[in-house]
UniProtKB/TrEMBL annotation:
Residues passing through the membrane, by range: 65-83, 103-130, 142-161
Species this chain originates from: Rugosimonospora acidiphila
Name of the protein in question: TrbC/VIRB2 family protein
Origin superkingdom: Bacteria
Coiled coil: none
Keyword list, A-Z: Membrane, Transmembrane, Transmembrane helix
Biased composition (Low complexity): 8-20
Composition bias, Basic and acidic residues: 21-45
Region (Disordered) residue spans: 1-51
């Protein structure tokens, strides 16, 4: 059974089945492509010219760093807006065991710094490997994917070693 007959059309006319409400002028179906041949996409093609400088490793590294530095800078700026007092939760403390909010945030940041550095290193390595494997992704897209991979891998690594 031919495709046109299966759809209920008269072969070669491009018409809808009778009684479907489509009353347009009969004629050949419009061709959307001038060439119907299938072309294999491979680097060995003669008509494919190599593009120089398409991988842009420097931009990928810069974007990967930006995915870490910009949120870190925003978080640091936000914590600088906190007051120096320790808040109402520490009013009953007499030994001074409640630190101020900015110093508590700084302490937590220094405790998490090894994981942040590991995530950054894994992300930079992932970004270079992504760019090495494919030049089809834009640098910002490859950097975002590398940042996600690095953050996830470092979380799994530090969870596995229990630090």
């Amino acid at each position: 059974m031919s495709y046109d007959r299966w759809l209920g059309r008269t072969p070669g006319t491009g018409h809808s089945p009778p009684g479907s409400g489509d009353d347009h002028e009969p004629g050949p179906a419009p061709r959307r492509r001038s060439d119907w041949r299938v072309v294999r996409h491979s680097p060995e093609r003669e008509d494919l010219e190599p593009v120089e400088g398409e991988k842009r490793y420097g931009r990928t590294i810069a974007w990967t760093l930006a995915w870490y530095v910009v949120p870190l800078a925003l978080f640091t700026g936000w914590t600088m807006l906190f007051a120096d007092d320790s808040g109402p939760a520490c009013y009953g403390q007499v030994d001074g065991s409640c630190p101020s909010v900015p110093s508590a945030v700084l302490g937590a940041f220094t405790n998490g710094l090894p994981q942040l550095c590991a995530a950054l290193m894994i992300s930079l390595l992932s970004a270079l490997l992504i760019r090495l494997g494919s030049g089809a992704w834009r640098p910002v897209t490859a950097a975002f994917a590398a940042a996600v991979i690095g953050a996830g891998a470092s979380t799994l690594l530090f969870s596995a070693i229990g630090t």
